[in-house]
Amino acid sequence: MRLAIAPDNGPIKRDPDPVLLRLVAHAFAAQDLLVRGISSPMVNHYKQRHLQQLVRLSYMAPDIISAIVNGTQPPDLTGRKIMRINKIPLDWDGQRKMFGFAST
Q1: What's the CA angle centered on 98, arms 88 and 20, to 5 degrees?
Q2: For 35, 69, 84, 87, which has the most beta carbons within 10 A of its beta carbon?
Q3: Who's near 26: CB < 8 A, 6+ residues apart?
Q4: Out of the domains of life, which is the source (predicted)?
Q5: Which whole-number Å values give the CA distances from 53 to 15, 28, 47, 83, in the listed order?
Q6: Distance from first CA to last CA of the chain, Å, rounded?
Q7: Chain centroid to CA 76: how far?
């Protein structure tokens, strides 16, 4: 993993976490399947329960998803942590607090 300090004292930039990237991609594929009825080979083999767990990730705040894609998410935000949370808040401020993007 590559680490670098942002020149503007912003978040630390790392290589994007492949597990988190895969979760985000699967989340949107699950949303397509469950909400729009559009099939995807990425998620067709998953059971309904796992699809429901994945689809909730597709409703994360856009800046959280961008941080995951850019590798600037908090270091302790892992795929395991996200999948183990039973109730992700629907409000984006609550999500930011839960996932470590904002002070509590």
Answers
A1: 75
A2: 69
A3: 42, 43, 54
A4: Bacteria
A5: 25, 12, 10, 7
A6: 28
A7: 13
43 in a structural domain? yes
Specify the pLDDT at position 12.
Answer: 65
Long-range pairs for 44-48: beta carbons < 8 A, 24 or more residues apart: none
- Give me the domain span that covers residue 19: 3-98
Task: Report residue 96 as tokens.
Answer: 């930011």
Q: Calculate helix-pair angle for 48-55, 18-31, nearest 10 degrees.
A: 110
Q: Tally Cβ neighbours within 10 Å of residue 18.
A: 9
Question: Tokens 């912003």 — which residue?
Answer: 10
**Count of domains observed in the chain:** 1
Residue 103 is assigned to a structural domain of this protein: no
67 falls within a domain: yes
